[in-house]
Amino acid sequence: MDAILESAKSWLTDFFDPSVKKEIQYLIENDTDELQDRFYKNMEFGTGGMRGVMGVGTNRINKYTLGKSTQGLSNYLKKTYGDSGIKVVIAYDCRHNSDTLARTVAEVFAANGIQVFLFSALRTTPELSFAVRYLGCHAGVVLTASHNPPEYNGYKVYWTDGGQIVPPQDGEIIAEINALSFEDVNFKADENLIELIDTKVDEAFIEASVANGNFNAAGKDDFKIVFTALHGTSITAIPEVLERSGYKNVTIIEEQAKPDGDFPTVESPNPEEPEALSMAIKKAEQIQADMVVGTDPDSDRLGIAVRNLDGEIELLNGNQTMVLMTKFLLEKQKEKGFNGNEFVATTIVSTPMLEKMATAYGVEYKTALTGFKWIGKMIKDFPQQQFVGGGEESFGYMVGDFVRDKDAVTSTLLACEIAADAKAKGSSFYKDLIDCYVDYGFYKEKLVSLTKKGMDGAAEIKQMMVDFKENPVKEIDGSKVIIVDDYNTSTSKNLVTGEVSEIDIPKSNVLIYTTEDGTRMAARPSGTEPKIKFYFSINAALDKAENFKKVNQQLDTKIGRILSEFNLG
After folding, report:
1. Which sequence positions are flagged as catalytic?
2. For the Alpha-D-phosphohexomutase alpha/beta/alpha domain, which residue ranges apply (predicted)?
3. pTM for this predicted structure
4. Are residues 544 and 503 part of one domain?
5. CA angle 245, 247, 250 (to 5 degrees)
6. 165-175 pLDDT, tens per residue?
7. Is residue 322 part of a domain?
């Protein structure tokens, strides 16, 4: 507690605003628990950048923590590219303080002699990724906390290629940040170096989204879409992209169209949660729409709901949409002719079904750690290869490489193209998915997240991972574990042969168990939230589409047994 108190008292100098000093003094005198939570650690970069609760303190998102990160990034950019000619672009989402924090970040860059392009109003994260390369910038920053609760905000850094920072840049930037004190931050901006941007970049991004996501599908005139922005940034792009691509029957949920950091109509602005799309699904039932699409606040994730075999609107998971999107893109590439250098990509906790599909098409399949930055990195690491598409289980997908991060704008258009085309051919998005199960195996996934907040929660999550390593899982639902992949030690052990092989991707605190029947369980602490996540994947053969409901029920029952086995039901 002495170190925490010392850290807090360092914020009582004249460098900090009077209101900040007043709040710190109050916490010192009246609320040691809150003081401890705010100062027991510094904000750190995780899989999605720096994300946390807004407020005063080293473990909070505020002017000073973002200022320090920006000063460190400025120093690193100058070391890398020299003292002149450096350009960065900044975007922000709908969250409270995002606009003012974005302005603060711009001012710190400008105070360090760096040219800043700052969006004049909120924009999507994929547009920020696009803008880095479009404007010839050396880096980009977006102020967003993705789908986290309203009290959160965050700071994601993009590099020259338009992708999120990855090794070695991330570690080197963090070292620069950690070498600074808050008093080293230069907030005195050269306003001449800050340029507001908007419609020119918007137009280029929308044109690129249409070019990459529009496949001239049949049946657009007869295809009804319900779209919700969930109070976020996608309202600035998706309606226009759909209109330009020929979709005339688009119903926007007006109650959720206005950007609002309180997200007043939902418990969570996360399209992974069925509740988030309930208002849109209700509207779809009223007007007999074919598809519902909802996006998270910064518009990099999308949730899709379509009509199932019984005609009911059903929310699909990220694995299901990823599988069908990839299948569609591979089919289109097949029609043009494969060049032999194509690849698709996903993450280590996403469905194994994608590998089966890639193999069937003769296309290379690559896997990466959780976090879309690793998929973006593949495009940079393998410039001689063509990235077709790829995604992750957490509702993110990327079409081609014009954006280097998950992109709900173009992915929304792609999903509509698939569904409209299927309907015109007498099928549906859902029926086409079942056909994939017949062709590549019926894979079904389940994610369970446990929230453990604060310092005690972080310690509990750490101990849970230790327990898994010291007391490894022996079997899952009666099937023996035969492979243990420990990404923290980069080792894969075959328990049948005793062979240990190296995992050739960066280290990460992830454990994956695979059993004889192909059941898989992964345990992983979240890099952006106070959670530990468990990913389950099971599979069965589906001989024909007519048996879908029967096999689906069998798999549901199996998942129920497994969750009970791990006390997660």
Report:
1. 146
2. 43-182, 204-305, 317-436
3. 0.95
4. yes
5. 135
6. 998 888 899 89
7. yes
